[in-house]
Amino acid sequence: ENNTNIGINLLNKASSAGNITANFVVGYLYHESKYVDRDINKSIKHYKYASSFNNIYPKNNLGIIYKNGIGNEISKNIGYAIEYFNESIQRWEDKLSMYNLAHIYIYEYKTNEKINESIELLIRSLNQNFGDSLYLLCIALIKKYEFDIDKMRKELNEKSCNLTTTIIQFIFDLNLIEKSIFQQFEKE
User: Fold this and answer.
1) Which of 27, 78, 98, 179 is the most exposed place for a label (fewest CB within 10 A)?
2) φ and ψ at 74, to 5 degrees?
């Protein structure tokens, strides 16, 4: 415990001195209540400082905070979340931010245009070996094509997706073409 307190004290000193990594770590500690009481406003302050130096991780974490909101402390703000995720994608082609932005497009906007954008983002993320994107991509494809596998396959082939067979097989393996199974899968 004494070493933890010393470590936190040193991280706070480093963040106060302007160390970008220390600001991210301190922001994370306050965000996740690791070794300190949760203080989301302090977390945001530290994340924003680290983010201003174009650090990928605080941008994504800020996006998550605003995507979900935090109790009564921070209101959900999808516009801010999109801004942080887009910046991370444009600057670093960040696969996690692609996944998070696609999630917003599928569940917050629910339009065909945004579903199309989410499919593009998830394919790009999958091409960077971000496996979680496979689940969300299947959901987006099924929402768009209502269980029509041939249309899904055609779109994936048109997008030169080298994972078409894997994606379609995954849908069949999980039996997602059954509406009730898909609905349960989507809830999880």
Assistant:
1) 179
2) -130, 125
